Amino acid sequence: MDFGLTEEQQLLQQTVAGFLENECPPVRVREIFESEDGFDETLWKGMLELGLGGLAIPEEYGGAGLEILDLALVAETLGAAATPGPFLGHALAGLAIAAGGSDAQKQRWLPALATGDRLGSVALVGEDGGWLPEEWSLAPGAALTGKQRFVPFAHQADLIVVGTAGGGLSVVERGAPGLEVSAYPGVDRTRRVCEVGFSSTPAEALESGAGAADRLRDAGLVLLAADALGGASRCVEMSVEYAKTREQFGVKIGSFQALKHQLADMAVEVEPCRGLVWYAAHAMDHVPEEAAHAAAVAKAHLTDRFMQVGRDTVEAHGGIGFTWESDVQVWFKRAMFDRAFLGQPAVHRERAAADW
Amino acid sequence: MDFGLTEEQQLLQQTVAGFLENECPPVRVREIFESEDGFDETLWKGMLELGLGGLAIPEEYGGAGLEILDLALVAETLGAAATPGPFLGHALAGLAIAAGGSDAQKQRWLPALATGDRLGSVALVGEDGGWLPEEWSLAPGAALTGKQRFVPFAHQADLIVVGTAGGGLSVVERGAPGLEVSAYPGVDRTRRVCEVGFSSTPAEALESGAGAADRLRDAGLVLLAADALGGASRCVEMSVEYAKTREQFGVKIGSFQALKHQLADMAVEVEPCRGLVWYAAHAMDHVPEEAAHAAAVAKAHLTDRFMQVGRDTVEAHGGIGFTWESDVQVWFKRAMFDRAFLGQPAVHRERAAADW
Amino acid sequence: MDLSYGAEYEQYRGEVAAFLKANWPLEGDEAGLSHAEQALVFRKRAIEAGFLARSIPKAYGGSEQPADALRGQIIREEFGKAHAPGDARGIGTMMLVPTLLDRGEEWQKQKWVGPTVLGETTWCQGYSEPGSGSDLASLKTRGELVGDGWVINGQKIWTSGAHRADYMFCLVRTEPEAQKHAGISYLLIDMKQPGIDVRPLKMMTGTSEFNEVFLNDVKTPKDWIVGKRGEGWLVSRTTLKHERNSIGDASATEALFKGLLDLARRSKRGGQPAIEDPAVRQRLGEIEGYMLSHKYSGYRQLSAQLKGENPGLIATMNKLNSTNIAHRIAKLALDLLGDDGMLDPQGQGALMGMAPKGAPGWLSQYMSSLGVAIAGGTANIQRNVIGERGLGLPRDMAVQRSK
Amino acid sequence: MDLSYGAEYEQYRGEVAAFLKANWPLEGDEAGLSHAEQALVFRKRAIEAGFLARSIPKAYGGSEQPADALRGQIIREEFGKAHAPGDARGIGTMMLVPTLLDRGEEWQKQKWVGPTVLGETTWCQGYSEPGSGSDLASLKTRGELVGDGWVINGQKIWTSGAHRADYMFCLVRTEPEAQKHAGISYLLIDMKQPGIDVRPLKMMTGTSEFNEVFLNDVKTPKDWIVGKRGEGWLVSRTTLKHERNSIGDASATEALFKGLLDLARRSKRGGQPAIEDPAVRQRLGEIEGYMLSHKYSGYRQLSAQLKGENPGLIATMNKLNSTNIAHRIAKLALDLLGDDGMLDPQGQGALMGMAPKGAPGWLSQYMSSLGVAIAGGTANIQRNVIGERGLGLPRDMAVQRSK
Prior knowledge:
The complex is a heterotetramer, with two copies of chain A (356 residues) and two copies of chain C (403 residues).
Chain A: H1 7-23, H2 26-34, H3 41-49, H4 68-80, H5 87-100, H6 103-115, E1 120-123, E2 143-152, E3 159-164, E4 168-173, E5 180-183, E6 193-202, E7 204-205, H7 209-245, E8 247-248, E9 251-252, H8 257-270, H9 274-286, H10 288-316, H11 328-340, H12 345-353
Parallel strand pairs in A: 1-3
Antiparallel strand pairs in A: 2-6, 3-4, 4-7, 5-6, 8-9
Helix pairs in contact in A: 1-4, 4-7, 4-9, 5-6, 5-7, 7-8, 7-9, 7-10, 7-11, 8-10, 9-10, 10-11, 10-12
Chain C: H1 7-23, H2 35-48, H3 69-81, H4 91-103, H5 106-118, E1 123-126, E2 142-146, E3 149-157, E4 167-173, E5 184-190, E6 196-201, E7 210-221, E8 225-226, H6 232-238, H7 246-266, E9 268-269, E10 272-273, H8 278-306, H9 313-337, H10 359-375, H11 379-390, H12 397-402
Parallel strand pairs in C: 1-4
Antiparallel strand pairs in C: 2-3, 3-7, 4-5, 5-8, 6-7, 9-10
Helix pairs in contact in C: 1-3, 4-5, 7-8, 7-9, 8-9, 9-10, 9-11
């Protein structure tokens, strides 16, 4: 009985956290945030060198063969540092192919995703909305025609896993004819999104895509929940730190009871959620019958908490928290992304309700 | 242009408030609260002497011929003092007959209601729930058979206006054959409720009951909103008073920022609602096309505020606020009554939404 | 309760309308003037006719009318309907003019009140500094009397309109030996001089409604001081706030709610318009209760003004109440936006009294609902004021000690 | 993550089950004993077998087992399944016994620990007084040494179980000259003597879970003091809280949520079961997120205990978190009750770890969700503790000053 992390898992988190402390401090985050395409080659290469490109890809295909929980722990750590870059879409593309590809398809794509020689992404929502596999509307086939929105880092991606009507998954590769990628004005400048158009664009369907779609959905929900956990925790830390430093009326503002209680309430919103995220990730590999429910609850709960705590963090910083100059906005906007990407909390609460 | 009270109206409120200060201080409220039947003849007689029995009954039938706003101002004042007794049901019975009775019916019942020689009440919900006229289920006719719940002070009432299927109204008089009244274990001991059974019980339908039912509903909603406004305001006063008196760590607890801000939030919940109640009452007599909407919003909003502020008041009083001995419980339980009687906030919000 | 304006006032409304019909829009050559020039020409006539600058003495360029909040309200309504320029808005008319009228020297009133109420001269406010938000006693910008002028050095923040203002009214520490509040003076500064560096302060929405102002050996004449040396904090506090337009405040909230209803009609939930979703309807209904309460509170306050009564507790609550409602509206809007909640507000700023139409506008509103709280002092300061001034609770110990 | 207990522990579970099979329920003549007597007989055997009073030295009547939270958890689970008496609950085992073990004289441990862990001797706690809630320094009950005994006068409140307790452990001001905390001693008092008047304190639910205790010339021997004179406040603070049963705490919340789901199935909204209403489902879903978070936090804390690690920040949050969840559940329950929300709770008290079934039970829960906050110190005190001890924020000025 151990509802906690193994030493290896703690080490993994520490390693990633240590790397980010050096390579991705807030000042670096801000540079990438302000940059044209939001993609920092050096940072991403560094992450790949740590093996973050293929954490959950099976060892036989060049990955580390770890579990969703390990992936979630990394996502949490990246979220805490507001790490800019394509981790989310890349990880999901690898999971999708690992879950739904034929052996040949896995051989073809996974090793390059694991090393990061090729960058992956996912395109899971159409123009009319609907993130759930049963809502996907793009007609499947050897050639795709239509549009998908909110595709992370599609402007950099070498291959995109696309959700198709009926819950299937197809892979479209960079440079395919009729593929058109246009940058989208996304609020979260650490995770850029694009609109992707297909016009008779050649695509290869994953062999058992329909079976893999649910796993892809759940993994995505867990990674967003984990990112939100990391981000929300950092928000609490930033606010507490500010309250311990900033003075008003001759004392640290953290000694004022009203602010102190607001900070306590923020902490109580966030800290108890850690186990919820762990369990949702754990269930994906070990308690399959509870996986969908746990992932839905975790995504809904954590992204709501992150958004609320993000608002509280702006307030706790006073006027300065509302400025572009303040780092607070970076986490605030990541919260907006986490909450909407793959569907809002209400959507997943309604799904979870079906299990009662 | 005057969105405010006339001098007469202010005088009316002051008169009632002064009367209650003398005749219905908290200690008296508690005695009646603890009593067997919750009915205090002396207090009720005093209220009748002030003319509160027939405020809104037309002058030609012995009443004061005032408006719903006047009635609401009295309800607010009674709510502030948590006045025990049958005012609500009595006032609604009078309004129902005034709105729906034939001239003969009015001649027969209103003068005695106005003087209080006879006590009225209303029976507006059946065993399966449904407070709205279109939900009433008791079969109409010269004789009624069935059960109604939550009939205020039916054990004292001389006549009861009963809602019947199709939105009609019938009057049943005390002592009618087959009429059975049993006291109900209600939470609000200042406004006792009964279950009333009919078994081929003679009843007289009001001539234009169907037209009067909506007015009866709206008036009821406004009076509950007004009661809640008075009660919630008093809750804020009690909490502020306690915070100014009680000491901890050598200072008044009201100087602690956390409590101060909670009290400020309570006040902001309540004080801005005054105009909402006034307008809903005013609309019933002068802006009929807005009356139903305004009454629905006022009832939903005010009874929610009262309930929340009631909970806050318990907390603001610490442990003692949770005891039977504390007066707080009296207002807290009135909030529970106001919120549920004539239908919960959600029901009336849904009705109001139809006008958007 | 009498919600009509009454015959006398309706007649007055007719006079206002007639004036507008005759005078707005400008015609002939005047129609060719710039917007700003047209506003000046028109305002002069409206002041002469007694419709604008009503509380300002004629001697200083106003129309010196007897106080009558209902006439004021009618003027606002009719001028609004005709899209005619009303009283010059901004911090100059709201704060500087009442301060000058109350505490200024005669020559100061002569020089500044008229052009300011006309909208010819504009002001910005130099109170806040980085590091001193609500705690003004800690401000650090220093003024030294050198010869017959002040030399000012320091930094101000949250200075709205600084890039286009002609002058700044400013709190400056002139008596370094004096304790806290006692060392502060209220100075007026010409913004068009070297040594003043205005830098827009970009907000998280991408817009810049505020500025930082750096003052580096900035100069102002010795007598451009309001009140005595060291009285600045008092002078700034005795400023009577401009008669609050409680109706306008509530109308803005109502407009925002109507925009939210519209958004709910256009958004989808499970294939249906979101406004049909019972969960959405309940949340809308809760907000409607708050919004209507706020609206009728506005009427109550106007009525109290009309009767010369103190509106009481409610007036101290306006700010926090409308902030709270804006928060609720913004949160529901974000939910209604769905996927569009990931879009960028694209530099859309706050809209004065209007509801946003597209997603970027609502996203800006979502973020700005936080900024609103900040601009008017944070919510916690408001709660302190309500608790202490409104409810009469004892002062906070820490704050008390520092005074 | 390994949520199984592992082979070694499953074998231990078998041992526990085998013991229970052989020893509970009691048989023969013993089956005829009263419930209380049966519990004593059984507990003695379970202590001998090493299953109860595990942390208590054998010398004082315990089974002195090595600390092992998972064995503890297994014992609770298996004893629970078999409906066998577990460790004696109550304030005596939770607070008095650890205090005595840590600070008591040898003769005090010999006299009281054994009977208390057996459940033979029961205690009540005399800390709170009317007028001194969380501010113990202000307590007024006085003890005077007269001859070789203390004479105690005063009043205690919120004394749970006082009417059936054998003894009270009590904070009493014995050094009237000393400042605040320094004048307080920790005395033990026999409850069965004249001068003690226990009056039930009726709650708004109609039940009486607490009492007021009036002490009028109450006597206790000179050496019935734990620690030295004037050390009482320290002694009461050094009490190690009974190892917190975080799993049990979370299970209670989960049971309450399941009861709420059940209520939603049985209640109607617009003619349909309320659980079908989208607005209700969203609120239930929000609560589920909080409830599951709390549940898994319980597992995290148990795991930390197993590894001898400090569970950290989360442990200080349990109380406020479960109070918050109970509030949310209670509020939704009131909405689901509809008209029945006007009914009386009819003297239904709080249910330990169980969900109410009927309307009166839920109404009592609705009110008790407020009482819960009070019993464990109000929510604001919890927030202070989290802010100061958990987050390391500076102390409050007012409280600081009074220390």
